[in-house]
Every structure is written in C-alpha cells, then in structure tokens.
Design a protein that fits this description.
Elements (H helix, E strand, L loop, with lengths): L1 E2 L3 E5 L6 H12 L4 E5 L17 H13 L8 E5 L2 H9 L4 E4 L1 H4 L2 H11 L5 E5 L6 H13 L5 E5 L17 H9 L5 E3 L1 H5 L5 H10 L4 E5 L17 H10 L4 E2 L3 H40 L7 H18 L3 H31 L1
Parallel strand pairs: 2-3, 2-9, 3-4, 4-5, 5-6, 6-7, 7-8, 8-9
Antiparallel strand pairs: 1-10
Bound molecules: phosphoenolpyruvate (PEP) and manganese (II) ion.
Amino acid sequence: MSEKVPYIIAGPCSVESRSQLSEAVAALTAMPQVSMIRCGVWKPRTRPGGFEGWGEEALVWVRELREEMKIRKEMPFCCEVAKPEHVEKAIKYGMDAVWIGARTTANPFMVQELTEALRGTGLAVLVKNAPSPDVRLWIGALERCMQVGIKDVKAVHRGFDVFKNDKYRNNPLWEIPIELRRRMPEVPILCDPSHIAGRKKLLLMLAQTAMDLGFEGLMVESHPNPAEALTDAEQQVTPEELGEMLGQLVLRSTDSRKADEELRVLREQIDHLDRQTLQILAARFEVSKQIARVKAKDNLAVFQPKRWDSLLQQRMDTARELGLREEFVKEMYEKIHAESVRVQTEYTDSLKESNNQ
Ligand code: PEP
Ligand code: MN
C-alpha cells in the first residue's frame, strides 16, 4: 500500500534580497519533499506603504541563482502575476509556473486579461480562491484558464476574509474547497496553510486537515529568517521547521482498492460537515438562552405559536430552494424547536432561582 505523496510548493512570501533568496532556495531545493519553489516578486498589499516586492530585479536574481547554483534540474519556480505585463516578465526570466492571487481571482476582467496573456505559453497556473466565500469566482477563474488551453491548472485554498483576525487570518471554510472538488473533480487542490493561519502554530493542524480531506498538496511560506521577513513574518517557517512539519504529517494511502480510498475521503468530508452542523446548533441554542432572558424580562411566554408558525413556513421555503425533502426538514425543526423550548424553560427557571437567592 503506497502513500499519496503531496505536491509541496515552498518558498518565501517575498524575494527580499539576493542573499535571502539564495539561502532559502539552497535549503528548500535540497529537501526531497519540495516539488516547486514559490517566490513572490510583486506583492499585493492591502494598504499602501508596505514593501511591494522588487519586481523585475528579483526575477533577475532568480534566473542568476538558478544558473549558478546546482539546483535539481527538474525543480520548477513560480511567482504571483497580477497583470499581463507580469506574465511577460515571468516568461522572460524563465518562470515555470505562476499563481493568480486571491485579490485578482475576485476580478473576472483581470483574470480574463491574465489568461489571454498565458495562452500558448505552456506555463502551469495556480489559482488561489477569492477572499470572499464565493466558490463561483474560484471556478470561473479556473474555467478561464482551461478555456485558453492551459494544461496544468491547480487550485490553491488560502482561506476567506474575516472581520477580526482571532483564530485564523483567513477562515478556512473547508466546505468551499469541498464544493470545488465536487464541481471540478479533475482539478487538483493544494492548501496554503500559511495564509489561512497567519501564524506558525496552526500550520501543522491545517496541513493535516488538508491531507485528511484528500487535497493533493500544500503551498507553504518558508523564509531563512522569518522574524526579519519584510512581509508575513508571523506565518513563515524556516526550511528546517518546514521539514519537521512535513515529517509529522500523516499521509493517507493510495490503495489500489480505489473505492475504499474515495469513501475515506468522502467520509472525512462528512465528519467535517457534521462538526460544523453541531457547532451551528450549539450557537443556535446559545441564542435561545438570550431570547429566554428577554422574554423573562417582559414576562412573555416561552412558547410563541405565531412565531413558530412563521418560522416553520420560512424554513419550508428554504428547504424547497435547497432541494431538501420538506417532510424531513419539518420533522427536524419540530425536534429543534422542542429542544429550544426546553432550553429556554430551563434557563428561565434558573434565572428565577438566582433572583430568589
Ligand atoms: C501570497 O501568496 O504571498 C499572497 C499574497 O497570497 P494571497 O493572494 O493568497 O493573499
Ligand atoms: Mn504571503
């Protein structure tokens, strides 16, 4: 039984200097697990004033280093492109692949221009998801790549915008790449745990989830000295740390009994979705308690028949829209509502008790 070997893209968020690049490239190309080097040369910064990359100058360093260093011949390099002019430069300096960044995927006009520039070049293209949780924008960009005849197209899951950066810098919302897999099963999906996590600590857990969900690989930011990085310092790991992390990943097998493997991947997806379902239910019952508090204040009955009727009607409309069997949804809501009434009654009683004490 052999393990499915993940496709690993690693490299600095940004090329900062010739020496930083050569240190990173020397270490990463010596790692047998690394399949491609990433190196950002044009950096999309959300706000002006930050380091925006050295552009063409950095591409010159990349080309020179590849010629000077004895790098494995088959080691490809990639950088981000956001304009047709970037594509021309990437080709001029011998890049093998490019990635379309999250902010660009969100703009179909730009994606169209980029894919026109990529037509017939033979470059591989990686498409990051747009920052908004809209799987159609991601699919649209992948389709535009395919329409111009790009043969090697991969999707990169880098998470979705959050208002406050608490646990994640970008929320993974695994259901979105899962939906992409369902709708475009032929497209390999890589996970970019660096931009999801925003800090080193969560990288391994995210990378493992991606492996468990059957993703084909990872794109990880790696810098020889992350603390000094000009961009994304908190999330970059040294090549050594990357090696340790990859060593800890539990890789799943590519069994010849293909159905077993497919079932395992699908069951992992079900486990994730069920966890989310229960988290949503838990959040719903917390809101029920807040409602109980308001009702208790105004001395209103816990059970409000009018509200229950209209809620059920609305849920039935949503069920129809989503193609769910109405009878099933009705029974499910009767159970949820009964539990909500129980939670509210218990909560109201506990409020009374604490007021009486
Ligand atoms: C990057 O990979 O460095 C980058 C800017 O990523 P994203 O487009 O996912 O924000
Ligand atoms: Mn980055």
